[in-house]
Inverse folding.
């Protein structure tokens, strides 16, 4: 169990590093797509199905997974589609830097919790 927790910590650290890198790369750059749309535990991805409906992706702790960013028109369209389809979960729109910072904080807290669990196993 301890080894699995240590592996999870390493994967989580990789995710944090990718998010921090994304923030670093955006310094001094003007982006047209500045928003992240979150619905419950999901974020809206940039893929569309054949019926032009948004698909939901679960926010993953995998190191290669970074969320799609949207411009204001995209956000408005997503929110309209979700409401038209009767989405009852809260729809949150974040400025992408705030979204990344919040996820980094959550992942760092997750690591602290896992380290606490490891200490109890020792």
């Amino acid at each position: 169990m301890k080894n699995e927790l240590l592996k999870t910590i390493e994967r989580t650290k990789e995710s944090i590093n990718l998010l921090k890198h994304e923030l670093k790369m955006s310094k001094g750059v003007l982006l047209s797509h500045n928003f992240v749309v979150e619905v419950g535990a999901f974020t809206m991805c940039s893929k569309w199905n054949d019926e032009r409906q948004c698909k939901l992706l679960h926010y993953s702790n995998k190191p290669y997974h970074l969320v799609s960013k949207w411009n204001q028109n995209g956000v408005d369209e997503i929110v309209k589609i979700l409401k038209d389809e009767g989405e009852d979960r809260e729809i949150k729109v974040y400025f992408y830097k705030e979204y990344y910072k919040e996820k980094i904080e959550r992942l760092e807290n997750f690591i602290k919790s896992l380290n606490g669990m490891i200490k109890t196993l020792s």
Q: What stands out?
A: The radius of gyration is 17 Å. Residues 57-64 have pLDDT under 50 and may be disordered.
